[in-house]
Amino acid sequence: MPQVPLPEWPWQAIRRLARERGVRLWPVGGAVRDALLGRPIHDWDFAVEQDALGLARAVADALGGDFYPLDAERDTGRVILKAESGARLELDFAVLRGDTLEADLAARDFTVNALAVDEDNAPVDPTGGLADLEARRVRAASEHAFRDDPLRLLRAVRVEAELGFEIEPRTAAWILRDAPLLAQPSAERLRDEFVRLLALPGAAASVQRLDEFGLLVHVIPELESLKGVEQSPPHTLDLWQHTLATVDTLEDI
Q: Taking Cα atoms as reference points, which of 152, 126, 124 lies closest to residue 140?
């Protein structure tokens, strides 16, 4: 099994601190995915065997970062560091969700994010994420992934756009099935995920993708009324297509 090429900093310092505290931890999620894809890593997630908040605080103290308890009840904390380049790094530490690392990974959103790194820097891949990275596809880690957190419905389109991958057919069917659940997350969470999507290249195509999956109506329901509304000459597009073209032009500007 090939090793995951994680950057030495801050990984080695964090691993040393965990060993000193007698706590097992594993890099998980997007950082592992991006390392395997050769992409820069800005955000790290760590699954921790126990006392994730205590480890996060120790990391902040040792590396000169800022510590924030995100969810004390779920033993989850964040550390903000500044790299030598001046770039901001976010490190999230969370206690295992489940009895084992494999159970934690299986409960995540997509297989390409359900990856971890073991003590030998080898990938841990219980859901087939490595094959999906190779095939450049977005696949839900389980059939109930969107029911566990409906915001993942938006995230699927964002991950597809961000990585240049394609949502595979069965996951697409689950998105269409579970689209009405997008009415459940708070407006703030929907806004944040939608804004992250708009910040990516090809925003107009992503908005159209949301519409194809029946998701856009739960984010900006007013846009539905634009479809089929013709405009006077010299316009050739209806209001909906004109709006998409405007988004596309704004991105070019």
A: 152
